Amino acid sequence: DAKTTQPNSMESNEEEPVHLPCNHSTISGTDYIHWYRQLPSQGPEYVIHGLTSNVNNRMASLAIAEDRKSSTLILHRATLRDAAVYYCILRRGWGSQGNLIFGKGTKLSVKP
Amino acid sequence: EAQVTQNPRYLITVTGKKLTVTCSQNMNHEYMSWYRQDPGLGLRQIYYSMNVEVTDKGDVPEGYKVSRKEKRNFPLILESPSPNQTSLYFCASSLRQGVSTDTQYFGPGTRLTVL
Question: Are B100 and A92 in contact (CB < 8 Å)?
C-alpha cells in the first residue's frame, strides 16, 4: 500500500491559516488523496479529497503538488473547533484497495 | 438525519462473556466496516462488508465475528472477549465499495473494557 508521511503535531493560532503537509512519494496514478479528521471523543469525519487538481469545499482546500508526491490541507481560518487529528490517506480506485488505511496523522492544536 | 449509530456507547464486561456491538446506518449504504482504535496504534480495520452476506477480514480480525444479514445493520460479535480487546470501536459506512471517491461516515464509537 502506498504510504503517507505527516508531522506528528502542529500548532496554530485561532483565526490564522493552517497548512497541514502530507508526503506520498510512492503514490500511483489511480490513488486519490483523502483527508479525514478526528475531533476529540468523536469518530473520524471526511474533510476533502482530490486526484490531481486543487480542490475547495466549505471545510478546507486541498493543494496537490504537480508531481502528486505531496499535498497540503489548508484551513483558511482556524477555529478552536478545528483542533483534531488530521489524517492523509491514499485510496486506490478499485475493490478492497478502496479501504481506508489510517496512519498516525497530525495532531493540530489551536491556541486562542 | 443521515447517520451511523452504535450501541452500546460504553460497555464494561468480563473475560469470556459473549457480547455484540450493534451498528446501523440509515443511508442505504452498501459498504460497512469496523475499526478499533488503540493508543499508539491508531485506527485499524477489523472486518468490512461490501454488501449483504458479503464480508471480509481487515487487518486485525482475530477474536471477532461479523454478519451482514440486512443492508442497514452490521453487528460486531466478540464470542469470548479477552482484555486485549479493550479498545475504542468505530463502525463506518459508505455508499459503495471499490469507489475511491466515496466518503465514509463514522459512528460515534463504542468504548469497550474487558476485565
Answer: yes
